[in-house]
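Board notes (copied after class):
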Amino acid sequence: MLSMMLAAHAEEAVGEAAHAAHEGGATLQLLPDMSTLVQQVILFTVLAAVLYKFAWKHILHALEEREGKIKGDLDAAEASRKEAESLLVRHKAAMDQAKGEAQAILDEGKKDALRLKETILAEAREEAAKAAERSKREIALAGDKAVQELQTQAAALSVSMASRILGREVKASDQDRLIQESLGEFKRQTMNG
């Protein structure tokens, strides 16, 4: 009802201003006349009293609720921000720890690789030394065997030549004795010479 009265009063004021402008030569009044001013003050006072009596508590309650909700949202946002900062700090610490552990694993892997390399090299050197020693023994044995065969052949050749020179055949027992003597003589000569 109050809004209808205000609307009617506004239409009346607009109509009067339009009529005055249409008649020409009328000047625009910035201040309303006294009766209009009194009506507006009374109307405003009545409207304020009605609003105060019926709507003001509800409006204040809605504003307080809105203020509380905004304050709660701000507090929740601040708590979320602090939690996010805390999570970021923990995440950075976990990342630093993981980087440290990864570097320690890499360092340990490098140390293990160096130890393994040294072990393999030592085993290879040892195996090479054993192989060289075996080869030396085999060469020495082959040399001794060759010398022995050579001595045996030389002795047999000597016996054969001696029997031709003597013109007779040497008995087996004489031959063995001559071979042994020849070998002994040959060994003495090779040791001395």
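Comment from the instructor: The first helix runs from residue 2 to 22. The radius of gyration is 65 Å.
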